[in-house]
Write a structure and sequence with these properties.
Structural class: alpha+beta
Number of helices: 15
Radius of gyration: 26 Å
Strand order of the largest sheet: 3-5-1-14-11-12-13
Distance between the termini: 67 Å
Helix content: 10-25%
Length: 701
């Protein structure tokens, strides 16, 4: 038998890499079909109100325009569980950017011209899109995103804070942020004798199939959703979005295949965003740095039509030992687009605030910030009292400090300069929960000695199909080049979406079980395989979702070096280093890519990315990549990602944790802490743009 000991964990190249770089891989809008039409949405230009009338005459008179759908003539849908999908069903306008019409044309250009010719008359109403901590409509919900209780309290945190020898009481602000995947949201839909077939840019084709079947009153086996190649999502494609509903509606109305590819400037209003979060963090400690009270209070916004509460105070329940803890959320329902998931929802903004406050506490104590975190590392999860299945945060901090050269750091602010540049370094911790869901998978052995694993997983650019093939090869005991993985089609065995860093842990478990059963069948089989081969399947319901007595999380540590230009206010990042404890690493190449990608996204969160809701129009001002600035190569000269070997038997058969999101968690805080070390001034609102840096330098605070 071939030696396969290095299959799992090896830096295998992506199996679909050549297809992507040669253009063979087809994305949702790239499926040419006979008679295919294109559609272009019309968005609302008022922040709240209703549609009085829609004049489509000019649009329908243009050459190549096939139809214009409005709330007056669009197909009727069953009421969705997600109200953001109830498009063109009534005259209401809940926020700027809501879809109010859809022009369908022979070509993309005709559809766009048709949409521009549609005239909409509105009955506007008073609106409010401004989030404040003192907003009179703020309330504490029952739950935050992820099913976490919105409020959690241990002991008497107020009294303990008041009695603490050393205290930090600080406010931090994170603005609205946008996912902006490389591939905008797109879908191509066609109806075939009562069956609906959709190519969708989605993180979960199984869910899209279920939702479309419900909306159009179809049996689920009459709907096929294909998401074989997806050009990024970062959470914004985690649930069905309105574009796929519009494509199916237009295809039904015209009797032709229809592609809807959303213009990038439409995305902030219709596919979710990271809601702004206003944080107040209070830390109380003894003179030797032992935490006695942790209070993290968050205020955020949601839309009028859907409650989504960013769980940004939840990390305080995980990170540091304290007998007195309060972690709570308030939300204000405003006339804004519905927020949703964005890479590491909750943890990314929450850990920015908490880890910034920990740095402020270290400064107040005169303690090294690495040692402060080490001293408060708990044995059990503070919020629940459950033991950690594994927690190697201290090892990450120690290894990161060694690799970064932290011991040579002069802790005094403004201690390093180079002409007009102030040089500083900072550190922050990271955490992200381990989430695993039931999945199904099938494995097939063919007479030619090759194998196929089938599962409706989604590869959103993470290398998922490659890692799943590695899991299969490892379990079967065969070389990787004899295994093919089929993913991204709802006709395959059902699987949960790619989100919450749960994909590989969930899908890999089912693939491992299916392949283990197939290996048993092969061992018992005598003679050559039949023409159809042998197969086996697995369903991890009851095992992957079983209750466990452990708190399961990945951890990490970020170290950053920055230069701050005292003339321009520009912050540059010569070095960014992360060390992670995320269980067994299943593919060294794709894992490093995921870690570095997350860290780069965290750099953008810290320095360049931010959005503004215009109080007059209710629109996001920064609605495209010309105004919403993501990092370019010149912004990211040196990013290092490392990990420690972590053996955790309480996860899944592979011993893996999710890695797609922990890279972003803590990065912004490490950079903000480094800016403080460089300048001696503390900025508490992201992003740290030159104007804010210059104002802080001028004010000295």
């Amino acid at each position: 038998m071939a030696d396969t000991t290095a299959v799992l964990g090896a830096p295998a190249e992506r199996l679909e890499g050549r297809d992507k770089v040669t253009g063979t891989a087809r994305y949702a809008a790239e499926h040419p079909m006979p008679g295919r039409a294109h559609a272009w949405p019309v968005i609302a230009t008022v922040a709240r109100g209703s549609v009085r009338a829609v004049d489509t005459a000019a649009a329908l008179g243009l050459p190549g325009v096939l139809a214009v759908l409005t709330h007056d003539n669009a197909p009727r849908l069953a009421e969705p569980d997600d109200p953001t999908l109830a498009v063109l069903q009534d005259d209401r306008v809940p926020h700027h950017g809501w879809f109010v019409a859809l022009a369908v044309g022979e070509t993309l250009e005709a559809a766009r011209a048709g949409a521009a010719a549609v005239r909409v008359d509105y009955a506007p109403e008073d609106h409010d899109v401004t989030l404040t901590e003192s907003h009179p409509d703020a309330y504490t919900p029952e739950e935050a995103n992820g099913g976490f209780p919105a409020h959690h309290e241990l002991g008497d945190p107020e009294a303990a804070f008041a009695a603490a020898a050393v205290r930090v009481d600080a406010d931090y602000h994170v603005p609205p942020l946008h996912n902006h995947p490389m591939e905008p949201h797109a879908a191509t839909a066609r109806w075939d004798h009562g069956r609906l077939v959709v190519h969708d840019s989605s993180q979960g084709a199984t869910t899209v199939r279920t939702v479309l079947a419900q909306l159009f009153a179809l049996p689920e086996d009459h709907v096929t959703v294909v998401s074989e190649h997806v050009g990024g999502g970062f959470g914004s494609k985690g649930t069905p979005r309105p574009h796929v509903v519009l494509a199916a509606m237009a295809a039904r109305e015209t009797g032709r295949p229809v592609t809807v590819a959303l213009p990038r400037r439409f995305l902030p209003g219709v596919v979710g965003h990271r809601a702004p979060t206003l944080h107040r963090v209070r830390l109380g400690a003894t003179a030797d740095g032992t935490l006695t009270s942790v209070i993290h209070e968050v205020t955020t916004h949601s839309s009028r039509i859907k409650e989504f509460v960013e769980q940004a105070a939840v990390p305080a329940r995980v990170m540091y030992g304290t007998p007195h803890l309060r972690s709570t959320h308030r939300v204000v329902r405003l006339d804004v687009p519905s927020p949703s998931w964005m890479r590491a929802p909750g943890e990314a903004p929450g850990m920015y605030a908490l880890e910034s406050a920990m740095d402020e506490l270290a400064v107040a104590l005169g303690t090294d910030p690495v040692e402060l975190r080490v001293a408060n590392d708990p044995d059990d999860e503070p919020g629940s009292g459950r033991p950690f299945s594994s927690r190697h945060l201290v090892e990450c901090l120690r290894e990161g400090a060694r690799r970064f050269g932290w011991a040579e750091r002069d802790p005094r602010p403004r201690s390093r300069t180079a002409g007009p540049l102030l040089i500083g370094s900072g550190v922050a911790a990271a955490t992200y929960p381990v989430m695993i869901s039931p999945s199904t998978a099938a494995a097939h052995a063919l007479p030619d000695g090759t194998y196929v694993v089938r599962i409706n997983a989604t590869d959103i650019g993470t290398g998922a199909r490659t890692v799943l093939a590695q899991v299969a090869a490892d379990t079967l005991g065969v070389p990787l080049d004899r295994v093919r993985a089929e993913v991204g089609n709802s006709d395959l065995p059902s699987a949960p979406l790619a989100g919450g860093s749960s994909g590989t842990g969930s899908w890999g478990w089912a693939v491992h079980e299916a392949c283990a059963r197939l290996r048993e069948r092969l061992a018992a089989h005598q003679g050559p395989l039949p023409d159809g081969g042998l197969d086996a399947s697995a369903d991890t319901t009851g095992s992957a979702d079983a209750e466990v007595p452990y708190a399961r999380h990945a951890f990490g540590a970020h170290f950053a070096e920055v230069t701050v230009d005292t003339v321009t206010g520009e912050v540059r990042v010569p070095r960014l280093l992360g060390v992670f404890a995320a269980g067994r690493i299943l593919n060294a190449r794709t894992a490093r890519s995921q870690f570095i990608g997350g860290m780069t996204m965290g750099l953008g969160m810290a320095l360049t990315e931010g959005s503004t809701l215009d109080p007059a129009s209710g629109d996001f001002v920064e609605s495209d990549l010309a105004s919403y600035h993501v990092p370019a190569h010149a912004d990211v000269p040196a990013v290092e990602a490392h990990w420690i070997d972590e053996d955790d038997p309480h996860l899944n058969p592979m011993g893996s944790k999710g890695i797609g999101e922990i890279g972003i968690v803590g990065t912004a805080a490490a950079l903000g802490n480094a800016v403080h070390h460089a300048t001696g001034v503390r900025l508490r609102e992201l992003p740290l743009t030159p104007d804010r840096v210059l104002a802080a330098l001028a004010g000295g605070h």
